[in-house]
Amino acid sequence: MPFSLTKKYSYLWVTLAFFCFSVAGHWLFAWYAYVDEQNNFNHLVRAEEYFVQVSRDTFENWQSEFLQLIWQVGGLALLLYVGSPQSKEGDERKEEKVDRILEMVDPKAKRFIATVDRKYPRQ
After folding, report:
1. What are the φ and ψ backbone dihedral angles of 33, each rounded to 5 degrees?
2. Helix boundaries (H) for the chain
3. Residue (of 19, 18, 56) closest to 34 by Cα position
4. Which of 117, 118, 110 is nearest to 92 (CA)?
């Protein structure tokens, strides 16, 4: 994997690692709890029964906690990224105001503004 992708998406990779670790831990400890419960009631330990139970628990937790958070954080980020009016509101307007204030304060500001615009093009 190229270094730029690793660095650029490092938060994603760390979050994905935490997610995988937590799911694996959940399933591992659920297995121990299931085996202990089955032994306490003198029932057979059956993998398919365990799989159904732990899948149900995982999806309940996923639905109630994780998807809610994903929508709140991911949905907001997506809507801001794709250009909802709230995300566009202000940046260009603020730049215009700052440029105007600079021009009023210093007559040489136009040259400075042009230099900054070349270095950091407006979107």
Report:
1. -65, -40
2. 3-8, 10-40, 47-61, 67-70, 76-82, 85-88, 91-105, 109-119
3. 56
4. 117
- 65-92 b/e with 16+ CB inside 10 Å = b? eeeeeeeeeeeeeeeeeeeeeeeeeeee
pLDDT in tens, 25-38: 999 999 999 999 99
The letter for the amino acid at 13 is W
d(CA 43, CA 88): 61
* CA separation for the pair 50, 7 (Å, rounded): 39
Q: Using an 8 Å Cβ cutoff, are 59 and 53 in contact?
A: no
Q: pLDDT (tens digit, 9 = 90+) per residue, 73-109?
A: 887 787 776 766 655 556 777 888 888 899 999 988 8
Contact between 45 and 38 under an 8 Å Cβ cutoff? The reply is yes
The CA–CA distances, whole Å, from 100 to 34, 66, 93, 123 equal: 69, 46, 11, 19
Find all residues with CB under 8 Å of 8, minimum gap 6, and list them. Answer: none
Looking at this protein, which amino acid is placed at residue 48?
A: E
